[in-house]
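Hey, resending since the last one bounced:
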Amino acid sequence: MQRILENKPGYMVPDNFCDDYGIMLLAVQRDKRHIGSASNRLRSDPAFMFEVIKTDCCDALFYASNNLKKNSGFILKSINYISKSKLDDLQHLVDFMDPVLCQEASFRLNLINKKVCLLQLDSQKLEIFKEDQDVMIAAILHDISNLQYASKALKDDYDFVLKAVKQNGYALQYASNTLQENYEIVIAAVKQNGCVLRNVSSKWKEDYNIVMEAVKKMDSFFVWPLRT
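The structure tokens again:
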């Protein structure tokens, strides 16, 4: 059978071998379309399906059993395996995973910590991630620019934005226009990073307390326009 598969990658695996781990894995490695012939038992086997995903067959999750599609350990392991540069492959995995998983707060946080680039994907399943304060705070710890993917409601949420600017003052640029003009938010941002003063509105550049707090947190001397 192995010799046949090696010589004829388009050969259909006989039904009596569709439940054989070794033969089916070899078949998929030769031609990814063979995954559609795998038995229900193999499609429910996390070890087998992970090996299939490792062959760059990321739409394999389409053929996985329903139980495997909502197996958080399997999904996390699979997504962690895929390079962050392969957004199309990650999109396939997200598209086919069970949306029920996304309702679990711990799953959302674990997933973003493994692959924060998922926030770039266009998927309705990920909208709940962008509304989750803990997820988005974890995301900006990876890169402050991830805050751009937060929901509109979060960008206008005082408590969330205050927490974000205390983590990284540059988070201020992603806040709603209303909160960018909020004194407590602005002063918290410059207390975290004095250089943020360059990006605040003109009225804050002339506020004594805000300028004083910004100067205290500047790592090096630079000149910024106080008047525009």
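The chain has a mean pLDDT of 87.

Sorry for the duplicate.
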